[in-house]
Design brief:
17 helices; 15 strands; 416 residues; Rossmann fold; binds pyridoxal-5'-phosphate; alpha/beta
Length: 416
């Protein structure tokens, strides 16, 4: 029911989907000139190694040894078959999940945080600034910075800063500094877009500081592909030829990309993105160039967007409250290679509770979106009387999100 790989079986190269896309991605544009951005435009924010990965045409990119050494603290992560959930649903489907909740920060986010901290340290950066929604990314980066002896400043979406005090404590325990965002408007609930503006402003204003983004960009999705690469090996160990469908929750698209991108070339494997109905970027957004942040300081990215000034309602899945989506994910959805579905909070938490009462673990609200979709796929298989192999991304645990469960269990959860 559980497939583990040995520490030696950790993937030693990341899977780069860029050369495998049917059409090249349109380039990011400079926010001032609207011309394609070059490496020099990005150099104040990112180390050259990451700028190179952003546009690399190499099909595989080696994971540096010091990054592998850190990843081995918790990787490879387990692949688990959700047998008890299958029984409760009475489905002929076989449901597997890739458990990224076992990392020190409790989610998939350290997979890229460690790589980004490493490359910044190598190029002489002393300090990193970043945004965080529910605190998963901020805590992951603070953890990674502590290992590579970098300072870390986190701008945390104000709505979550109040709601999730223990994520703040994690950030501080690993030595990072965290403040609520937007910094200049104490009455504003904030969003990932406003927090990105604060973090970019910080990095652009200091010579010793680079900016670090927890999702969306090509290099972030690249670093997350260890998830899908391991899952492929583990499914083979479980005797599965291939999954019929691979599902991930989608905020900016990093855990979804990490799990699904290695399956893009595989015929007959459906890929599904799951988002909240209150922030329906892929299902209701328009495809356009838009800023990555609210203030319009970042390059314009070709993506599905709800508009950079869209402020989503303060749902519990803080990590899914982003107006845009990764250009890679957007291209896959636009080209028909990936599907997208949206669910309201109440249905998501019903699924999360059913999962907890069968499989035991309490999932992050973001992760619970993928659980909802996996359950619905399993129920559809039951309806059709068809076997179906379902793989979903268990992107993080919800042990610091219990307020959300309390609200759900006591009828206080409102869907806007
Ligand atoms: C547990 C978890 N899952 C999913 C997400 C969504 O982000 P992404 O789409 O980049 O994976 C987040 C973001 O904070 C998260 O914390």
């Amino acid at each position: 029911m559980r497939w583990n790989l040995t520490p030696e079986q950790i993937p030693t190269a990341w899977f780069n989907v860029l050369p495998r896309l049917t059409e090249p991605l349109p380039p990011p544009l400079h926010p001032g000139t609207r011309e394609p951005v070059g490496p020099d435009d990005l150099a104040p924010l990112f180390p050259m190694a990451l700028i190179g990965q952003e546009v690399s045409a190499e099909p595989w990119i080696d994971v540096p040894g010091p990054v592998l050494d850190v990843l081995r603290l918790w990787r490879p992560t387990p692949l688990v078959r959700a047998r008890r959930l299958e029984e409760a649903l009475g489905t002929p489907a076989r449901i597997y999940y890739k458990d990224e909740s076992v990392s020190p920060a409790g989610s998939h986010k350290p997979n890229t945080a460690v790589a980004q901290a490493f490359y910044n340290k190598e190029e002489g950066t002393r300090r990193l600034s970043t945004e965080t929604g529910a605190g998963q990314w901020g805590s992951a980066l603070s953890f990674a910075c502590s290992l590579f002896d970098l300072e870390c400043k986190v701008y945390m979406v104000r709505a979550s800063y109040g709601q999730k005090p223990y994520r703040r404590v994690m950030i501080e325990t690993w030595g990072g500094e965290v403040v609520p965002s937007p910094v200049d408007d104490p009455d504003h609930p904030g969003s990932l877009g406003t927090a990105i503006s604060d973090a970019v402003r910080d990095a652009a204003g200091r010579d010793d500081t680079h900016y670090s983004l927890g999702s969306v960009l090509n290099h972030v999705l690249l670093h997350q592909t260890v998830i899908g690469l391991e899952a492929k090996e583990q499914l083979a160990l479980a005797g599965e030829e291939r999954p019929d469908v691979v599902i991930g929750s989608c905020g900016g698209g990093s855990n979804l990309g990490g799990l699904t991108l290695p399956f893009v070339p595989d015929e007959g494997v459906r890929l599904v993105a799951v988002e909240p109905t209150s922030c329906p970027t892929l299902t209701e957004g328009r495809f356009d160039y838009d800023f990555g942040d609210t203030a319009g300081m970042t390059p314009l990215l070709p993506m599905f967007t709800l508009g950079h000034d869209f402020i989503p309602p303060a749902i519990h899945a803080g990590g899914l409250r982003y107006h845009g989506d990764a250009p890679i994910i957007s291209a896959l959805v636009r080209g028909g290679r990936m599907e997208a579905v949206a669910y309201p909070q109440a249905k998501v938490f019903e699924a999360a509770v059913q999962f907890a009462r069968t499989q035991g673990t309490i999932a992050a609200p973001e992760t619970s979106h993928a659980i909802r979709a996996a359950i619905d796929e399993a129920l559809a298989a039951k309806e059709e009387g068809a076997e179906r192999v379902i793989l979903f991304g268990y992107s993080g645990h919800g042990l610091l999100d219990l307020q959300a469960y309390d609200d759900h269990l006591h009828g206080r959860l409102v869907d806007a």
